[in-house]
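Bench log. Compound arrived from synthesis this morning; before running ITC I wanted a structural hypothesis for how norvaline sits in the protein. Inputs:
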Amino acid sequence: MMKDFISILDITDDELGHILSDAIHLKKLRAAGTPHELLRGKSLAMIFEKSSTRTHISFEVGMNELGGHPLFLSTRDLQIGRGEEIRDTARVASRYVSAVMIRAYKHSTIEEFARFAAVPVINGLSDREHPCQLLADIMTINEHFGHLKGLRVAWIGDGNNVCNSLILSSALTGMEVVVASPKGYGPKRKILSHSKGIGGRIHLTRSPEDAARDADVIVTDTWVSMGDENERDERLRAFKGYTVDEHLLKLASPDARVLHCLPAHRGEEISGEVIDGDQSLVWEEAENRLHAQKALLLSLLNRREEIC
Ligand code: CP
Ligand code: NVA
């Protein structure tokens, strides 16, 4: 296992397989009320530069359920907020805690933290990637369909951090990814060429209908990510016609399912009928953040043999 989990490509397909099977196992243990305190004595610093509901709660509860100790740290309160260097915080935190999860504006902040940290560092979302979200999404798709390889996943909307992790994961999962986004809001060329270079099957289109047609999974996310708020009006104009609604869902495979990492904006990137409808796996997806991240923590802290 790699020291850190900063990109979805920091794990191999074998490691992804282990995380998925451990996550399912942990989900069953939790449902049965069986204690699984495999991280007793360990601690996780959770550093947030931006808001969070799911990432914060799932890591905090997950660490508690594993018998470890989570620490919520906002950069508003840390000395980072007053200019202390990332590298110094990383060196010092490594003397206290067993692992660090960071949500930061810039991906480079997390990379710098990991370079100077002696303990595993997890990306809890950056402007480039959201790899923890992808673990939960892949787990949710695998649970529903029973396999991943060959499925057609349509991403409809902004070519953002979550989209980047999905694109990069294609080579790991064998899922084909079709991205529909308006001009100027597609994924970065570097991400696309990286994924294609390692065997990712990625197609781009401007047409949400073309992407949705025969898709097994439709995924979307906000049109205005954290940090993009000053572009809100122009983004709402650019994304007109990209709402995942019943019209788009009807073009997909009859058994298609819909994912959204949340928070959602009903009437913008997704309609109320779709997110609250029978084909939505959004709530299972949100729950799976907990199980997938617990499995990730066990892998990074070398405790996964204990549950096997
Ligand atoms: N999906 C997700 O990461 O949600 P939060 O921003 O609430 O953590
Ligand atoms: N793309 C969104 C994801 C939130 C979980 C953002 O970066 O704000």
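What the model suggests: The CA atoms of residues 53 and 227 lie 17 Å apart. The two ends are 16 Å apart (CA to CA).
ITC booked for Thursday regardless.
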